[in-house]
Amino acid sequence: LGGGSLQQDLAGTRVLISAGGTREPLDPVRYLGNRSSGRQGWALARTAAARGAEVTLVAANVEDAAPFGCTVVPVGSAAELHAAMTARTGDADVVVMAAAVADFRPTEVAADKLKKGSSSEPTAVALTRNPDVLADLVAARRAGQLVVGFAAETGDADDDVLGHARAKLARKGCDLLVVNDVSAGQVFGRPDNAVTVLAADGAVTEVAAAGKDTVAAAVWDVVVPRLGSRR
Ligand code: CTP
Ligand code: CA
């Protein structure tokens, strides 16, 4: 296999990852969406598979081809992502929520295309809160299963980035939270970004500015010692 040693520290581990960004339908042709590319989720899947894991990717609106060796389950909306993750979580040793899930969806979805000048011409969009997939996966977590969340945070008048992130980790109840500092100038327009991995057990792992594969590898490096003999 050539020169480098091939790390197989995820051999036999079943990994379930959500990636991409959900689209919340307004009518048959329109949706509310977000800019998530799915690339961080793809990097997590690729690196886990390379280290021996059995990977299922629940992919919301990602065009990229499936990473080698991974099973891809395509979904559209937050409701579909929620159902797909809930159906598969029981088999997973590690669950990673890298998808950007819309917090809200249009309360009503028009059966027919909304038209200009019609009696139904909309003037506003009413929104309804979507289920919190991560919180539901944590609630359904079986013994020994590790649940990983992601968060993009900025500091503000109330708290700094890590303060907000620690509060989110506690609120969500997951085992690890991968935190991206998106304060002005930190991420936008830059190819690399630094992350901090917070663990519920208090451990803090800083990952210096790096590409998405390096961030993904760092996440698995934090996960592996926490898997113990659970598999
Ligand atoms: N998430 C989820 N379901 C949602 C919203 C978010 O599973 N409806 C997950 C994301 O995939 C991510 C984590 O929760 O792993 C944190 O997402 P974030 O948007 O930072 O958290 P929210 O609870 O939505 O908080 P905020 O109000 O700051 O957006
Ligand atoms: Ca959110």
UniProtKB/TrEMBL annotation:
<dbReference type="GO" id="GO:0015937">
    <property type="term" value="P:coenzyme A biosynthetic process"/>
</dbReference>
<keyword id="KW-0460">Magnesium</keyword>
<feature type="binding site">
    <location>
        <position position="113"/>
    </location>
    <ligand>
        <name>CTP</name>
    </ligand>
</feature>
<keyword id="KW-0285">Flavoprotein</keyword>
<keyword id="KW-0210">Decarboxylase</keyword>
<feature type="region of interest" description="Phosphopantothenate--cysteine ligase">
    <location>
        <begin position="15"/>
        <end position="231"/>
    </location>
</feature>
<comment type="pathway">
    <text>Cofactor biosynthesis; coenzyme A biosynthesis; CoA from (R)-pantothenate: step 2/5.</text>
</comment>
<comment type="function">
    <text>Catalyzes two steps in the biosynthesis of coenzyme A. In the first step cysteine is conjugated to 4'-phosphopantothenate to form 4-phosphopantothenoylcysteine, in the latter compound is decarboxylated to form 4'-phosphopantotheine.</text>
</comment>
<keyword id="KW-0456">Lyase</keyword>
<feature type="binding site">
    <location>
        <position position="103"/>
    </location>
    <ligand>
        <name>CTP</name>
    </ligand>
</feature>
<feature type="binding site">
    <location>
        <position position="168"/>
    </location>
    <ligand>
        <name>CTP</name>
    </ligand>
</feature>
<protein>
    <recommendedName>
        <fullName>Coenzyme A biosynthesis bifunctional protein CoaBC</fullName>
        <ecNumber>4.1.1.36</ecNumber>
        <ecNumber>6.3.2.5</ecNumber>
    </recommendedName>
</protein>
<keyword id="KW-0479">Metal-binding</keyword>
<comment type="similarity">
    <text>In the N-terminal section; belongs to the HFCD (homo-oligomeric flavin containing Cys decarboxylase) superfamily.</text>
</comment>
<dbReference type="GO" id="GO:0015941">
    <property type="term" value="P:pantothenate catabolic process"/>
</dbReference>
<dbReference type="GO" id="GO:0071513">
    <property type="term" value="C:phosphopantothenoylcysteine decarboxylase complex"/>
</dbReference>
<dbReference type="GO" id="GO:0004633">
    <property type="term" value="F:phosphopantothenoylcysteine decarboxylase activity"/>
</dbReference>
<comment type="function">
    <text>Catalyzes two sequential steps in the biosynthesis of coenzyme A. In the first step cysteine is conjugated to 4'-phosphopantothenate to form 4-phosphopantothenoylcysteine. In the second step the latter compound is decarboxylated to form 4'-phosphopantotheine.</text>
</comment>
<feature type="binding site">
    <location>
        <position position="150"/>
    </location>
    <ligand>
        <name>CTP</name>
    </ligand>
</feature>
<comment type="similarity">
    <text>In the C-terminal section; belongs to the PPC synthetase family.</text>
</comment>
<feature type="domain" description="DNA/pantothenate metabolism flavoprotein C-terminal">
    <location>
        <begin position="10"/>
        <end position="223"/>
    </location>
</feature>
<dbReference type="GO" id="GO:0010181">
    <property type="term" value="F:FMN binding"/>
</dbReference>
<feature type="binding site">
    <location>
        <position position="172"/>
    </location>
    <ligand>
        <name>CTP</name>
    </ligand>
</feature>
<keyword id="KW-0511">Multifunctional enzyme</keyword>
<dbReference type="GO" id="GO:0046872">
    <property type="term" value="F:metal ion binding"/>
</dbReference>
<feature type="binding site">
    <location>
        <begin position="131"/>
        <end position="134"/>
    </location>
    <ligand>
        <name>CTP</name>
    </ligand>
</feature>
<keyword id="KW-0288">FMN</keyword>
<dbReference type="GO" id="GO:0004632">
    <property type="term" value="F:phosphopantothenate--cysteine ligase activity"/>
</dbReference>
<comment type="pathway">
    <text>Cofactor biosynthesis; coenzyme A biosynthesis; CoA from (R)-pantothenate: step 3/5.</text>
</comment>
<keyword id="KW-0436">Ligase</keyword>
